[in-house]
């Protein structure tokens, strides 16, 4: 985890590199006229929502001839894992080479503000002369800056590059997305019928033990494999196009999936069904010494590799392959190329808010065991997520659970609470249904994995324990975006134009005609009559206004002396002692009565996030009437806490304990809070208290028009339940 020691170094993390990105090119890599022969092209073929359910991984049910053929000509990676079970946090980590829990991009569909030195890694490739295209999904938890890609659209393609220019091209295939598994439209059914004998027979499906075996579930399972086959055809077309262009021998090809299969208990979860993904890399023979200098034969056709690989390793690996220095802040490690690092011992993953449902889970996996820490152990796995509930399999699971017809591992998903810790032997129990955390025979393994998790959380500065509404205000006070300062031109001769800017970490893009924005790395040559346009951008900020210079305009003859100014990044506002106190209070999970005095004391902590978890701890630990009566008295005082989210969690507990008269008005008022995530916390609490929320149903119905879509979803869920009772 480059850039981090035992505790996060905020100064090091926020250090701004003011040099050109082109300066990161390593010695020994020529970017001259012979660039085609000296640098490989790289083609990424990514798809959505699939596990390694492919023929090349031994799945006899799968029909995936093109990907299987790619594996026969390349290397199949058997231990590759996402750091999240859903797309947006996953892609945030891929594009930056950093954990979302470090960057603050861990909640689904949030808008991150990364530190000044964090860039989308293709920007480094662009600075080094690569043509970088993305067709076309981004989903990075921030708007992609114009500096990231030469092209980013559904028309982006490597063929649009200059002659001889090396490329890094990404094609994202969405046909395998969760939404297509449940798509029963005539157009989709006709398309599937076109598969002919390649269409999957539901009767031959082999279901995981946590699914009920019903025709509806089998139909979803078969269609999941059908859309993989459709996606495989798209992969085949891309490979054929590369071959016909005569570029196959010059191009390293990656095929990968962005997280596990788009079905319940897989996507969104950090079991292997949600994390483990396929990765196949084909390296032409001419590039094998570059890709694995010490062992090029390991890349021969039909090879397999069982090293642990994490998604945050993708960015540094691409930089390694293209001769670019890996920035110190990147937390991934290269697994190929001249900068190849030591193989991993562990991969790490996180689950936080998934759409409208809050959860907080962390996981560590080595080659055999998976450790899971449930920080919201008191919340069922089976929370309602409106989008997920559209899946027929999910509807079937809920129906059978309500009828008492589920059994064995099928019941796990609907248990009212989760264990504080889970431990699985993924070799003997690949479906992760037999929790070994309480088995004394595995105590040393549990302790080792627990320690690995704790060291990772501290070393990477995991900020997941900060309630999202509190974090949003720290991250972007008042919800206001910072705007990047405008670039400033200078020139000593009026023909070659330099550009500088005051905002640390920002990038400059420019153009002199109608073509797309180019990345600025050196002064721009300008012909008589031409106009130079430029703007500055930085991740998580609004782009600057466009500035223009026309040849002949007056301009400074030397770079202006600019004092770069940058408002404090949110990392400077997250006190290390607060994170330490949060870890200490969450270490009380599962201690029951013993923890109550410590929770009560922590209700007066100076930090609102600590008070929040103290109130949660009291709510979940007080079982006897005497304990509840004592807790009521201290929680009543918290209804006036300066932090709205602390008031919300206190009110939730008080409603559960019969004090709705005092508590419901607090929840109703929180529905009008300026912070969207505070409103989501409030409506979530109202959903959990059930019929007790009826007296403020009109306020809940008003939330159906909330500007935050997730608040609307939760309000709909409450309305439907209250109206049906």
3D structure, described in words:
There is one protein chain. The protein has 725 residues and is an alpha/beta fold. The chain folds into four domains: 29-178 and 247-344, Alkaline Phosphatase, subunit A (3-Layer(aba) Sandwich), CATH 3.40.720; 363-477, no CATH class; 483-566, Sandwich (Immunoglobulin-like), CATH 2.60.40.10; 573-723, Leucine-rich Repeat Variant. 32% of the residues lie in helices and 14% in strands. A hairpin with a 6-residue loop joins strand 15 and strand 16. The radius of gyration is 27 Å and the shape is globular.
**Gross geometry:** globular
Largest β-sheet summary: 8 strands, mixed
Number of domains: 4
Number of strands: 19
Unreliable runs: 1-20, 27-37
Structural class computed from helices and strand pairing: alpha/beta
The CATH topology name of the largest domain reads Alkaline Phosphatase, subunit A
Cα-to-Cα separation, first versus last residue: 52 Å
**Continuous helix count:** 24
Would you identify the CATH H-level superfamily of the largest domain?
A: Alkaline Phosphatase, subunit A
């Amino acid at each position: 985890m480059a850039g981090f020691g035992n505790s996060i170094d905020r100064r090091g993390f926020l250090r701004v590199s003011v040099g050109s990105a082109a300066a990161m090119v390593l010695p020994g890599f020529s970017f001259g006229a012979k660039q085609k022969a000296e640098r490989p092209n790289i083609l990424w073929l990514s798809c959505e929502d699939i596990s390694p359910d492919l023929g090349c991984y031994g799945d006899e049910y799968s029909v995936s001839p093109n990907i299987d053929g790619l594996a026969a000509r390349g290397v199949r990676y058997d231990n590759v894992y996402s750091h999240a079970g859903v797309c947006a946090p996953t892609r945030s980590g891929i594009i930056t080479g950093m954990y979302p829990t470090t960057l603050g991009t861990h909640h689904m569909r949030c808008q991150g503000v990364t530190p000044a030195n964090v860039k989308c890694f293709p920007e480094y490739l662009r600075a080094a002369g690569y043509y970088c295209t993305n067709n076309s999904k981004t989903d990075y938890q921030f708007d992609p800056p114009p500096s990231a890609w030469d092209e980013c659209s559904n028309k982006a393609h490597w063929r649009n590059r200059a002659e001889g220019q090396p490329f890094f091209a990404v094609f994202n295939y969405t046909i395998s997305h969760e939404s297509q598994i449940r798509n029963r439209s005539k157009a989709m059914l006709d398309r599937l019928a076109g598969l002919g004998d390649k269409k999957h027979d539901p009767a031959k499906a082999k279901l995981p033990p946590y699914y009920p075996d019903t025709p509806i579930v089998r139909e979803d399972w078969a269609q999941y494999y059908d859309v993989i086959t459709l996606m495989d055809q798209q992969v085949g077309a891309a490979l054929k196009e590369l071959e016909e262009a005569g570029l196959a021998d010059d191009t390293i090809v990656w095929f990968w999936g962005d997280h596990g299969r788009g079905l319940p208990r897989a996507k969104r979860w950090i079991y292997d069904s949600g994390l483990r993904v396929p990765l196949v890399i084909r390296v032409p023979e001419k590039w094998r010494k570059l890709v694995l200098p010490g062992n090029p034969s390991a890349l021969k056709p039909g090879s397999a590799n069982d090293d642990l690989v994490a998604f945050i390793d993708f960015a540094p690996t691409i930089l390694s392959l293209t001769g670019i220095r890996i920035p110190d802040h990147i937390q991934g490690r290269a697994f190929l190329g001249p900068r190849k690092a030591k193989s991993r011992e562990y991969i790490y993953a996180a689950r936080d808010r998934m759409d409208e449902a809050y959860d907080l889970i962390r996981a560590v996996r080595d080659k055999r065991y998976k450790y899971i820490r449930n920080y919201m152990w008191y919340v069922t796995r089976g929370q309602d997520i409106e989008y997920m509930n559209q899946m027929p399999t999910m509807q079937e699971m809920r129906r059978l659970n309500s009828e008492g017809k589920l059994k064995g591992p099928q019941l796990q998903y609907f248990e009212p609470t989760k264990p504080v810790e889970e431990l699985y032997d993924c070799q003997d129990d690949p479906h992760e249904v037999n929790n070994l955390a309480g088995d004394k025979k595995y105590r040393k393994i549990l302790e080792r994995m627990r320690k690995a998790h704790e060291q990772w959380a501290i070393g990477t500065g995991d900020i997941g324990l900060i309630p999202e509404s509190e974090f949003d205000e720290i991250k972007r006070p008042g919800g206001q975006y910072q705007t990047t300062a405008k670039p400033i031109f200078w020139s000593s001769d009026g023909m070659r134009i330099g550009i500088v800017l005051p905002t640390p970490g920002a990038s400059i893009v420019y153009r002199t005609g109608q073509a797309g924005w180019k990345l600025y790395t050196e002064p721009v040559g300008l012909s008589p009559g031409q106009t130079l346009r430029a703007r500055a951008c930085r991740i998580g900020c609004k782009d600057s206004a466009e500035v223009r210079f026309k040849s002949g305009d007056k301009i400074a003859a030397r770079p202006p002396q600019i004092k770069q100014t940058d408002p404090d990044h949110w990392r400077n506002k997250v006190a290390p002692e607060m994170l330490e106190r949060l870890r200490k209070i969450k270490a009380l999970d599962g201690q029951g009565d013993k923890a109550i005095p410590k929770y009560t004391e922590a209700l007066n902590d100076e930090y609102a996030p600590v008070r929040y978890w103290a109130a949660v701890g009291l709510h979940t630990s007080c079982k006897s009437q005497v304990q509840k009566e004592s807790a009521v008295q201290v929680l009543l005082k918290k209804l006036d806490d300066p932090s709205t989210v602390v008031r919300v969690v206190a009110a939730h507990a008080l409603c559960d304990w019969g004090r709705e008269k005092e508590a419901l008005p607090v929840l109703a008022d929180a529905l009008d809070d300026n912070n969207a995530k505070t409103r989501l916390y409030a409506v979530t609490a109202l959903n959990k208290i059930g019929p007790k929320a009826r007296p403020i149903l009109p306020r809940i119905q008003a939330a159906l028009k909330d500007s935050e879509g997730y608040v609307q979803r939760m309000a709909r869920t409450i309305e439907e339940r209250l109206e049906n009772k």
